[in-house]
Amino acid sequence: MAYRSGNTISGKEGRLFLDGEEMAYVKSFEATLEKNKTEVPILGRRVTGHKTTGASGTGTLTVYKATSRFVRIMMNYVKNGEDPYFTFQEVLNDKSSGRGTERVTLYDVNFDSAKVAGLNAEGEVLEEELPFTFEDIDMTEELREDF
Q: Which InterPro entries match (predicted)?
């Protein structure tokens, strides 16, 4: 069967959970695993080889300003030395695509920074961009590949 445009998945059909609590105020969410590689020069070859030696997980969460939760997380670190780690679960399920559900869980999520104050005289909605790292990943459901 050929690929159809209807099989394309809409990112609006997703949900995000932080430690089991749905985050209804998410604007966007992205997580990336990047392999760490070491260059391996090899005699007789003009192209340098590469050996994978590990991986690093990073991401960005963008939310509409609707809570002081992330200010509190950063403040608690500065004041008390508490640096909490979280679990994210992304659930992607665009029923009209016919591809099924994808459920990806990120473990040991730690936020790198958070905006602690901000105003906007132009009346725009306030957003917070929250870069993070993570240390493990699971996928308990995946999208079908049979087109």
A: DUF2001 (IPR018989), XkdM-like_sf (IPR038628)
| Phi (first) and psi of residue 139, to 5 degrees | -130, 110
The Cα–Cα gap between 85 and 70 comes to 13
Q: Are strands 26-40 and 49-64 parallel, antiparallel or unpaired?
A: antiparallel
CA distance 102 to 96: 14
**Whole-number Cα distances in Å, 19 to 1, 4, 65, 108:** 39, 36, 19, 10
Q: Is the pTM of this model over 0.70?
A: yes
Average pLDDT over residues 96-102: 86
